[in-house]
Amino acid sequence: MEKIEQNAHKRYSRQMAFGKIGAKGQERLLAARVVVIGVGALGTVIANNLCRAGVGHLRLVDRDYVELSNLQRQVLFDEEDAAAQLPKAQAACSHLAKVNSQTSFEPVIVHVDSSNIEELIKDADVVLDGADNMELRFLVNEACHKLKTPWVYGGVLGAAGNSMTMLPGKGPCFRCLVSEIPPAGSYPSCASAGVLNMASNIIASIESAEALKIITGSAETNQGLFALDVWNNTANYLNLSANPDCPVCGKGEYELLGRRAETLVAKLCGRDEYQIIPGQKAHIDLAGFEKRLSASGTVKCSQFMLSFSDGETDFNLFPDARAIVKNVRDEKAARSVYSEYIGL
After folding, report:
1. What does the pLDDT look like over 270-307, one tens digit per residue?
2. pTM (2 decimals)?
3. Is residue 248 situated within a structural domain?
4. 254 in any annotated domain
């Protein structure tokens, strides 16, 4: 206990009084490095929980910015964040820094793909899922299995949610649970089915508790599928075992990690917006673009993002050359805007 300074001992006294954490567990938490992929309904609750629990370093990774519709369930943001369209990772870290000065925060504003996932998680003790799509979870699963990094899955839709913990080499992986990525449009989205913040808060808290178990060395992690529905008052647990024919944990095949990068255009959930991600790595000088575009419309620029509008064309541009093009009818129109104004 003497290894924990007096202020920290006072801050975490109630948590340390829980016998399965104690002083030794708290020391592990203070030294831990955690990566949260996605800082939305799940990720904001996870980050808040782990910050207050005393995790030493939090890397928050998200590609998006705060909007008014997020405030119903994404607990770290406020109306000022939405009005300023702050990147979610930046806004979350700014708020949490006021909660716990003993935790170090690292906002990372990128689109996670095969080119950067391993770098993002290589030093993590555990990875937490706050993602909004299945393909990203498949990618995280492959990278975590390859690097032997534990990770915790969580998903919520409507009033229902589920969670599962993956310990590479010690049980099933996510591909054992879901054998193939569901085709686009084959399952409901948050925009069509809605999301209750009560469900996302509970699932995120379960994910957070699993992270504490992993960091403190508990053997009581949840390697089955835990599922609940807060509207129908149900909770279920499904025991799972590793599938010897699983491409990932059974055969060591990493399909998504080996996928060649190409320009990606994707419609964002519930919005008339398209995200464009160039296939080749690039770095944008946002200040230079601000000067270039200032004569053509209204430009707002920070180190994290540039916003442009001329009354007809609206887009946000990020340092990695990724852009979100707004109010366009289709992918072709989005590509046209990107080509005309950014031209990479």
Report:
1. 678 899 988 777 788 999 989 988 888 999 999 889 99
2. 0.85
3. no
4. no
In the DSSP assignment, the letter for residue 18 is S
| 152 shares a domain with 79 | yes
The total of structural domains in the chain comes to: 2
pLDDT tens digits, 159-186:
999 999 999 999 999 999 999 987 755 5
Banded model confidence at residue 192, pLDDT cuts 50, 70, 90: low
Domain identity same for 46 and 146: yes
Task: Measure the CA–CA gap between 6 and 269, rounded to whole angstroms.
Answer: 47
Residue-level pLDDT at 190:
73
The set of residues, in sequence order, having a beta carbon less than 8 Å from that of 147 and lying 6+ positions away, is 118, 121, 122
Where in the sequence is the domain holding 137, given as residue range(s)? 32-238
| 3-state SS, residue 219 | coil
**Eight-state DSSP code of residue 98:** T
Strands, sheet with 160-166, edge to edge from the N-terminal-most edge strand: 104-108, 57-61, 33-37, 126-129, 151-157, 160-166, 225-229, 234-238
Give the tens place of pLDDT for each residue, 73-123: 999 999 999 999 899 999 999 999 999 999 999 999 988 989 899 999 999
The residues, ordered by sequence, that sit 6+ positions from 54 with a Cβ below 8 Å of its Cβ are 8, 11, 12, 15, 26, 29, 30, 100, 102, 103
264-267 vs 273-277, strand pairing mode: antiparallel
Residue type (1 letter), 328: V
The distance between the two most distant Cα atoms of the chain, rounded to a whole number of Å, is 63
217 shares its domain with 276: no
Report the C-alpha gap between 58 and 35 in whole angstroms: 6
| CATH at 74 | 3.40.50.720
Let me know whether 59 and 137 are in one domain.
yes
Are 299 and 214 contained in the same domain? Answer: no
Tokens of 301: 């620029």
